[in-house]
Amino acid sequence: MIKLNLNKSSAASSGRLCALKRAAALIIAAILALVFTGCPNNAGGSGSGSATPPAPPDVGSFEDTGDGFIKIIPPANGIAGVAPDYALHGSEDWWKGVFIDGRKVKLSPYKLGNTEVTYKLWKDVYDWAVKAENGYKFANAGQKGSNGTGNDEEQPVTEVSWRDCIVWCNAYTEKEKGIGECVYRKKDNHTVVLKDATATADCDAAYADMSKKGFRLPTEAEWEYAARWQGSNTENAAQYGDVWLTKLNSASGAKKPIGFSGFALPAGETWETLRDELTRVAVYGKWWNGTDWYDKTPATTKTAAVKSKDPNALGLYDMSGNVMEWCFDWYGSIGAGEVIDPQGAASGTDRVLRGGGWFDYANYCTVGGRDGSSPGSSPDFRYNNLGFRLAWCP
Predict the structure, then answer these.
(1) Residue 373: CA count within 13 A, CB half-sphere
(2) Full-prediction pTM beyond 0.85?
């Protein structure tokens, strides 16, 4: 221990004291330097070896808003398309969805119905709309499910054309939100709200005013994104920019692919386990047993009530199976480049159908399958395995 004799005033003792003070000051400075360089997030500065932490991946988000809709916020950076490196159900482009290699899609926030439109809702709005004072006209009255029977009005509505659907969306909007929020309007006069589904030229040329808050059909990109979103969950998914989407050869919400001819079974799987996983999330007709397509047992003979199967990651039901669903878009080829809120081709002869139906082969349940071949998707087409789902801009 160093002992200081402060009563001496000799030059030697004074020099030793100054040296000790300098040493003490150097020790304190060294300690403070260690403290501050070891804590780069101090309010005094970032430190000499610090780095800005990387931004978390933007995978978008969703919220069940409790009104029968899911609010969906896609990633601001967009969905960057990729080429699949796994087997699809065919080589044609219609198995590849809309998020293709060389294309980036940016989508605005939107809300999507968590079920297909039920017959009960359709009929309530239809009966209001066709009253003389409301002035709506439809080509088809709609049907409860696939055969119109049973006491369950929670089956999806079927036998409605694309034109019926857009006019019904306007009617539902006027009934609930006022006519000013109607989305579908006359092409050459946007003040005119479309009310007549038998006015074929006006309906087929419909202008969609996306600034309005009314009910509408989803665009094809909105439909597919909602069917495939998995956020950061990589199971049975592929990465598109920051976000992971269900693989194109699977059903919405499924954790395994859909079996088909020429497909190599994953390790530990059988054709039956693939079938059972699809059955968990979809109402459909036939499955691939390794040799041929076979009817399900027991056979699927009609539509089911909505929510009869498990939902997908967003909480949406029946995105694969039960009934196919109309989208707004004209069917056409998918171009490359960056697009914002695409609405399909500028014109065409057929509107897009997505999702597969109750009597379909399992491969139609894929989230990548696009349907738009005449005459099964012309705007006046209707069938007992075809319905729709609502969207709107919050």
Answers:
(1) 5
(2) yes
